Amino acid sequence: MSTTDPHPTKIHRTKSAEKRMVTIFFMKSGLIKSVQLETGATVNASWYVNTCLSQVFKAVSERRETRGLRGLIFHDDNARPHRAWITNEFLLENHVEQYPNPPYSPDLSPCDFFLFP
Questions:
Q1: Is the pLDDT of residue 80 over 70?
Q2: Is residue 96 in a domain?
Q3: Which of 39, 32, 38 is nearest to 50 (CA)?
């Protein structure tokens, strides 16, 4: 940089809004439930089962009054909380079938088609 070059412009960034993690559950008829993770919390199998899935299954049961969770096919990704023993036991106890998601699948997520058109 020579003495004749103008000084570079300094960019001042304002503090952005706090980021929040939200899990979203939907079916072909629309949104079922969105569950927000508490600030500073970590997603683990215990939180996923006790907070997320319990709220989601309650909402599904209310929408499907006659069938409840029976016949429900649950599709998620292969994240560790989704494949943990406690999660699998919870799904078995509630008679919910898991739809297998192949690892490293090049297919687009269903969210790309139904949730974010």
A1: yes
A2: yes
A3: 38
User: Does residue 110 lie within any of the structural domains?
Assistant: no
pLDDT higher than 70, residue 109: no
Structure token digits, residue 116: 């974010």
Q: At 83, which helix (H) or strand (E)?
A: helix 80-83
Range of the domain at 89: 22-103
Structure confidence by residue, pLDDT tens digits, 41-69: 889 999 999 999 999 999 988 888 877 77
- Does the residue 55 lie in any domain? yes
Does 33 reside within a domain? yes
Q: In one letter, which amino acid is 42?
A: T
Burial of 72 (0-12, 13-18, 19+ CB in 10 A): middle
The structural domain count of the chain equals 1
Smallest CA-to-CA distance from 73 within 10, 28, 11 is with 28
Residue 81: name the closest of 37, 46, 109 by CA: 46
Place of tokens 């004749």: 4
Closest-CA residue to 96 (of 78, 67, 72, 68): 72
